[in-house]
Amino acid sequence: MCGRYALAALKEEIIGDFGISHLTPLATERSLPSDWNIAPTKEIYLIKAEVATGERILDIASWGLIAPWSKSESDALKSQSMAINARVETVHEKPTFRDSFKSRRCLVPASGYYEWATELGEYPRKQPIFVSPEEGRFLAFAGIYNFWRSPNDEKMRQSVAIITRDAVHDLAKVHNRMPLFLPKDRWSRWLDLDTSLPEVMDLMRVPEPDQNLRFWPVSSKVNSIRNNGSELIAPIHLGESETLF
């Protein structure tokens, strides 16, 4: 799964690298700070397409898809915590995700993501690992989004889930799941809502999804959402003494 990630970039860098033509009013008036410890329910950037033209739009939403049938703020928050990820194998059929998968697909930019080692490989269990691209500034997570209106204040809230898949090769020795990264040549078809469902399913079959990725162990400071800063992604030597706070 993907439960924490990092995005250390200016809004202008995201706009340039992803070929964004427009910003929503919210993304125009606000700029999210660099964040090395993005956790569920935090506000994040997403990229979607204008239906008529296909031009890419930058927007802001909260991480964790709110179930459409949530009847209260507490229901919405609970559903978000349970739907930060959607499995590539079932995203097209699960009630929480299937409508968004058909009509509200997006990209989520990231500088890298964290995973906590299982017993599958050489790292101690629960050892935090940071995964990032060898080249370029960003990974492009495949995502889906939706809208939910609060019954109390009638405010419309937008939320996002990140799609995950089976991990491969050396990454599978860290954890058995990984985010679905989409290569640049698949972005337009992924965002295009006229793309047929069979083609969308095919877009998620990415060969060599770990290509040009690197990873290393990092401090357990990332375990606490109170900690932030570039030091969280600094490599450590295992056995080195660490302090949580």
Explain this structure:
- This protein has 245 residues and is of the alpha+beta class.
- It has a single domain, classed as SOS response associated peptidase-like (hypothetical protein yedk fold, Alpha-Beta Complex).
- It is built from 7 helices and 13 strands.
- Strands 2, 4, 5, 6, 7, 10, 11 and 12 form an 8-stranded mixed beta sheet that branches. A 5-stranded antiparallel beta sheet has the order 3-1-8-9-13, with no helix packed on it.
- The chain is globular and about 50 Å long.
- It starts with a strand and ends in a 28-residue tail after the last strand.
- The C terminus is likely disordered.
Notable features of this structure?
alpha+beta, eight-stranded mixed sheet, 7 helices, disordered C terminus
Task: Give the strand content.
Answer: 25-35%
Mass-distribution shape: globular
Name the CATH class.
Answer: Alpha Beta
What Rg do the Cα atoms give?
Answer: 18 Å
Distance between the termini: 25 Å
CATH superfamily: SOS response associated peptidase-like
Structural class: alpha+beta
